[in-house]
Amino acid sequence: MKIIHYSNVEAKAFPGGHAHGAVGRVLIGQNDGAKNFCMRIFEIEPGGYTAQHAHPWEHEVFVHQGKGAFFDGNEWHTAESGTAVFIPGDTEHQIKNIGDQTMLMLCLIPSGAPEL
Amino acid sequence: MKIIHYSNVEAKAFPGGHAHGAVGRVLIGQNDGAKNFCMRIFEIEPGGYTAQHAHPWEHEVFVHQGKGAFFDGNEWHTAESGTAVFIPGDTEHQIKNIGDQTMLMLCLIPSGAPEL
Questions:
Q1: Which position among A36, A48, B38, B75 has the lowest Cβ density within 10 Å, counted as fewest Cβ atoms?
Q2: Tens digit of pLDDT for each residue in A57-115?
Q3: Which residue of A has its CA nearest to B25?
Q4: Residue with the larger pLDDT of the pair B14 and A10
């Protein structure tokens, strides 16, 4: 059993190219023996955002802290702490922090996709 | 894209038999087209606990709110909000709320395991 607070995991640059004010951490992944899916947490500063992009794998997201806007390829939706977001594979998406505190969100991916 | 606050999802009895003061919700699962893994959230009242048990599939857990104790088959470990817990398959485990507020924890499982 692995137990670790997210703040004790090394932060890395956000994957996928263009992003601003965003870092990620792998909380549970292949190195822990997690063979089916990977848990990451992303930290987005106020005003920060991820790149708009799409890829074949899905995201299962949960907003742990703060308030974000999620683009689904057509429109933006808001999501606050306690909200789950499912982004199916091949869906254009982008995420912005639209609150005044750091946004923390879990973002899980199936194995085979790049962890970070 | 599915966006839903956990409180808007129907709560169900905790799976796995003996449990006290605990309910679960499927946030993202097969019904949403999530074919690889499933996101649930469990709500455990102060003093509540889940059954001690083991099963072949792993759990990827994240404590969203509150303070819990996690049994790994040998000893108990504490985990507060912001902590990730990886419970490999076939590991005996039990979870208790040892804080004074409702404990909320995500608990993700691979597809094939019962969602709830």
A1: B75
A2: 999 999 999 999 999 999 999 999 999 999 999 999 999 999 999 999 999 999 999 99
A3: A84
A4: A10
Decide if A36 contacts A110 (C-beta within 8 A): yes
The residues of B whose Cβ lies within 8 A of any Cβ of A are 1-7, 27-28, 32-34, 36-37, 39, 41, 58, 60, 62, 64, 70, 72, 77, 79-80, 82-88, 91, 93, 104, 106, 108, 110
Sort out which chain A residues have CB atoms less than 8 A from B72's CB and list them: 1
B106 CB neighbours in chain A (<8 A) are: 62, 106
Nearest to B37 among A64, A79, A110 (CB): A110
Mean pLDDT is lowest, of A15-19, A41-45, B66-70, for A15-19
Looking at this predicted complex, what is its ipTM? 0.96
Q: Hey, which bits of chain B come out as E strands?
A: 2-5, 12-13, 20-28, 37-49, 59-65, 67-71, 76-80, 83-87, 94-97, 103-110
Residue B13 has pLDDT above 90, yes or no: no
The domain spans of chain B are 11-110
CA distance B65 to A15: 28
DSSP A33: T
Question: B11-110: what fold?
Answer: Jelly Rolls (2.60.120)
Which CATH superfamily, name and number, covers A24-110? Jelly Rolls (2.60.120.10)
Partners of A55 on chain B (C-beta within 8 Å) are none
Considering the entire predicted model, what is its pTM? 0.97
Three-state DSSP class for residue B108: strand
